[in-house]
Every structure is written in structure tokens, then in C-alpha cells.
Amino acid sequence: MSGPNGRTVLLGGVPVVLAAEPLKGGGQAAVYPVEGDDRVVVKLYRDPPGPEQERRLTRMLTMSPLGGRPTDRSQRPELAWPTAPARAPGGAFLGYAMQRFGEPEHVQLVGLFTRAQRIRLFHQRADWRFLLGVAWNLAFMTARMHHEGLVIGDFSSSNVVVDANGFITFLDCDSIAFTDAVTGELFPCLMHTTDYSAPERLAGGPATRASDDFALAVLVYQLLTAGNHPFGGVPHDSAPESTVQDNIAASISYVVRPEQVVVPRGTVDPSVLPPELLGLSRAAFGPGVLDPGARPSAEDWLRALDRERSLVRVCPDRPMHTYGSHLSGCPWCGRASVTGHDVFNLGPVPTPPPPPTGTRTALLVGVILLILLIVIVTV
Amino acid sequence: MRRQQPPRTLPAEYADIEFENNAQRLPLVLCLDTSSSMAGPPIDALNTALSEWTRELHDDVSLSYSVEVAVITFGGRGVTAWRGAQPLEPGSPVGPFVAANMFEPPRLAASGVTLMTEALELAMHVVAARKAELRAQGFQYYRPQICLVTDGLPTDGTGHISRTWQRLVPVLAEEQAARRFRLYAIGVGGLTDLAEQVLQAYAPKFNARLQGFPFRQLLQMMSASANAETKGAGDEVFEKIFSQFKTQRPAWEA
Questions:
Q1: Do A190 and A122 lie in a common domain?
Q2: Could you tell me the pLDDT band of residue A71, with boundaries at 50, 70 and 90?
Q3: Are residues A200 and A312 in the same domain?
Q4: Does A296 touch chain B (CB under 8 A)?
Q5: Among A228-232, A307-311, A354-358, which stretch is predicted with the lowest mean pLDDT?
Q6: What are phi and psi of B46, to 5 degrees?
Q7: Band of the pLDDT at A279, cuts 50, 70, 90?
Q8: Percent of chain B with pLDDT over 70
Q9: Distance between CA B42 and CA B218 in Å, rounded?
Q10: Residue in A closest to B61 by C-alpha
Q11: What is the least distance, in Å, from the CA of B69 to any CA of chain A?
Q12: Same-domain pairing of A107 and A197
């Protein structure tokens, strides 16, 4: 793809040499580093891109969405927007250049969904407060893109990266759907990632703000539960090969109706979400699955997330345990004592000191009395 | 009210897989030829490639969310399933699958016969067992991947060329048609025509006959395939990934 003699491409007319090995390669395109410039990468399509793709890119190069550069200098751009077209020495359109957002500074969102990767890449920073902040940044970006008439389209945990401060950047800008303000040409989004696709997209429908809102809801829910997918779990009496995609299409979420599915033992309980956010989740994963109009908008999420940010509590026993103000005790300590798995700390779970014997006996007596009472009442 | 404690016998590493999150899992089986013809540089190259791939797997945030790895080898006197670096006794109560971020590669040595048919049967068996186990626990799974790598022809237990491989052809055809797993069958080290025919019969779409021992590229192709699977890619994407893997050979040889 990169020309007959190897790896020279023209970026806005200037020849550069691409590294031999791509950073990553999917089925559609591969992303290459540029020799001698580690701030830029070049995305080359595997199949020759058509004239629509070239018109799209040309149009995108004249746009500066989300107000161009952010004001806070510690924040990188929220969109890895194309910076130049990439052409073969003969002039054929091959792809485009963009800023590089690589590890370890920039980590795909999915890196926040497993403990080992959270700890490896974010050290002691990625607690629940951090996840809430990332969710806020995601909702903020989505709301502003929608305000500017852009539809993300392919919105997933692998094409958004997050840095050590929780700032996010959306990577695959060439799949964004928008209408050319001058010619009125619609550039649709042809890509989607099944585990984040609303049912209408799974059925072949176009990307819309509402399909973005669905993906946003899934991502926010995953962040606030440290990686649990709201459409996980195997429905009772389902076909053997049941998948997340099937649950989305059939509108089966344990967040709304836990009795419909076998929920894995390790699943974090939806009640770790503060009530307002849980309410939005239930709307998105209940009526909002099949009715795009019933989904909370990015703005709804932004407002609700905003209210929680100042209310986060810190566990007195384990400082990496932070949680919503609606809970009376630390949910992560509770989970660690039951499962032996501490979501935010590595190593064995420290056993809390046993309560004084007197208290324990009193507690035991209390429990026995309670059970007796229940038995009596039921009988 | 207290919830039920996990059983005390559960090793810590298990608890970790089980309680990590509810992600949809992707079982991946490496079914590797370790018969005598692999002795010397080929088996060394395989061990090196496995170590490098393990490192990449540990660092891959996407794959470590979903992928579980099992290794099956055929060589020596028969077929061995490995749980990471540990060979499993036949009838072991634990299965061979290990979460990607905890996988450690076995140190493989080459000797003996090529029980390829039996190895593939075991691969299908462990995949089916793992699916049943995941499902019972409430975990969804993506279509599993089995990667068969060999440099020769299937033999029987005495090292004679065996025709038992033919019994597997209809079984594999049915399993693949039902999308129960995706099978890659890859010949390395200059396979004979007959040996290539075996691979073509096993995996009509995803078979290759490669010069040399490009294990590293082969394992990277498996990662790319796993990545495509978790993103819900269509069949054409897998075909593209595989054909790139096959056609990029000359560049790697240089």
C-alpha cells in the first residue's frame, strides 16, 4: 500500500519515510510511525480508498471541531483529527496523518477495565473517582460533538484513549459522520463495534446521535463498575452461543432485569452507581435499548456525572477505595472480603482486625434474634 | 446476610480470573507440533516466539480483557495439554485455559511422534468443555480460535504415517460450519504436498504452507484475529488478516 519501493509517502506534499512495521493493523487500515518524528503517525487504508473517502478527508482538513485546541495546556486534543492527506509519490490518495497518541501516555479505555492493566498503566491513580472523571470527560466530548453536528459513529473502548490525568482523545476520526456545510454532502459512518452498537445499528441502520448515546451509556457504565458490561451474563434458556451482541439485540440487561440472566459471580453490583446515574443506566439499558428516543442524551449524562464529582467519598481503611456519596460503607472493601478480589489494589486482601469479642457475641445474638423473628412472622 | 464464600480450595489465580469482570471471553488454543522433526533451531524459535508473544499479550489492554489461552502439544509419546507453563495430568480437575494477562509459556522440547489427529480432538474437547463451564458461570464467549501448527504428517503412536486424520475431516467441517470455532492450520518448515493436503482438508479457508519457521508473525496473526473477533468483525476481515499474513512472508525472509 505504501508505494512500490517501500515506505515513502507524501504528507501534504512533503515526503516522509514510514517505519517498516505498523503500530497496529486492523482489517481496514494500518497505522504506521514516521521515521524521525515520533509525534505523527500515518493511517493507510488496506484497500484503495474511493473518491468519497478522499472528499471526506479534504473536507475534514478545513474543519477544526471542538474549538481547535483546548485551553488547558496539560490537555491534549480530544480528537485525533487528520492533519494532512497521505499520498503515494505518484499522487494516489492512501490515507492521512494525525498526531500520535500511544502508550504508555495514552491508554485505550479498555485498559481501565481490568485490574492488572489499571495498576500497570495508571499506577495508584485509577480509583473510582478517576473513573468517574473519565466518564465525565467522555460525556463532555460527546455532548459538544453532537452540538457541532458530528456523530462519532464507531464509539468503543478501543478507539478512545485516556491519559494519566483522565483526559481523553477519540482516535478514529475518519469514520465520524457529518454533513458538509458547503455542498450538503452527507458522509456517513460505516464502521461500528458490535459490543457498543445499539440494536438499530446491529440491524444495519445509520449512525445517529442516539446510537452514540447508547455507546456512551455502555462506556460510562463500564467505567463506573471497573469494567463490567451492562449486557454481560447468559440469559436463561438462551442458545448456546449467546453473546453481548445478542443481549443488546434482545434488550436483556441485568442492570434492569437481573432475573433474566445468569450473572457471573464477579460482576460488580449496579448499586455502586449513585441513584441518578443508575436511573439513567436503567433508562438506557431498559426502554432506551429498543427506543432511541428514550435514551439519556450525552448532556443528561454530563449533568448527572457533574453532580457526583464533588461528593465522592474516600474509604478510611484503603485510600484507593473511593465511592459514591449514596453508599454508607465502602463497596470495594465489602466485595474484597466476600470474593478475595480487591478491584483497586494488588496482592492479598488485608484482613480487617476482628471486632472485640463482646461486640461479636452481641452481633451474633442480634442475628439469631432477627432470624427467629423472621421465622415467627413468616409462620 | 453474608454471601457465599468462594470455596477454600480455589487457587488464588483462579479467583482472580473469575472475579475480574463479566467480560465476554475468547478462548484461544495453540495446538503445537513438538515431534522429533521440530528438534533444534525450530523448537528454539518456537520457545522464543512464545516468550515474546506472552510479553505482548500481557501488555495488550484489549486482549487481556477477553482472551484466555490454552496450549496443546503433540510430540514425545502423545498429546499434552498445558495450563500455562504447567503440563496437566490426564484427567486433571482443572482445565488448560489461563487468562491472557496471567499466561506463561511452557518450555517446549521436541521429540517423538506426531499425533496431530488426537491433538486436534483434544483441542476441540477442551474448547467445548470451557464453553460449557463459562456458560454455566454466566460468561458469554466469542467464537474460540484454534491454531494448529505443524511441520509434518500425522503419525500413529509408533511414528508411522497414519490415515486417522481423515476421520476428523467431516467432524471439523461440521464444527466450522456451525461456527463453533475458527481453525487456522499452518504448516512450517517446508511441508510436503501431502502434508499440505491434510491442512487444506482440515481448514479449507485458513491454511498456509510457509517457508521457515515464522512463529512470531504467526502468533501476531492470532492476536490480530482475536482483536478482530472481539470487535465483531465480519468474515472478510479475517480472510484479509490471514491473506496478509501469508503474503507478507517474503518481507520477513529478507
A1: yes
A2: low
A3: yes
A4: no
A5: A354-358
A6: -65, -45
A7: very high
A8: 90
A9: 14
A10: A111
A11: 17
A12: yes
Secondary structure of chain A: what % helix, strand, coil (to 5)? Answer: 35, 15, 45
Q: How confident is the model at residue A72 (pLDDT cuts 50, 70, 90)?
A: low
Q: Total structural domains in chain A? A: 2
Chains A–B, number of C-beta pairs less than 8 Å apart: 141
Quick one: A43 and A181 in the same domain? Answer: no
DSSP state of A33: E
CATH classification of the domain holding A34 = 3.30.200.20
Instruction: Give the residue on A whose Cα is nearest the Cα of B5.
Output: A338
Q: What CA–CA distance (Å, rounded) separates A230 from A221?
A: 7
Domain identity same for A58 and A192:
no
Beta strands in chain A (DSSP E): 8-11, 14-17, 24-25, 29-34, 37-45, 84-87, 93-99, 107-108, 160-162, 168-170, 178-179, 186-187, 234-235, 261-262, 313-314, 322-323
Stretch B75-83: mean pLDDT, rounded?
94
**Mean of all residue pLDDT scores within chain B:** 89
Question: Does B244 or A297 have the greater pLDDT score?
Answer: A297
pTM score, two decimals? Answer: 0.90
**Residue A166 belongs to domain spanning:** 103-339
User: Does the CB of A269 have a partner CB in chain B at under 8 Å?
Assistant: no
User: Quick check: B20 pLDDT over 90?
Assistant: no
Residue A202 lies in a domain: yes
CATH number of the domain that A295 lies in?
1.10.510.10
The mean per-residue pLDDT over the stretch A160-170 comes to 96
What's the ipTM? 0.90
Residues in chain A with CB shorter than 8 Å from the CB of B230 are: 195
Task: Tell me: do A87 and A151 sit in the same domain.
Answer: no
Please check whether residues A112 and A84 belong to one and the same domain.
no
Structural domains in chain B, sorted by start = 24-253 (3.40.50.410)
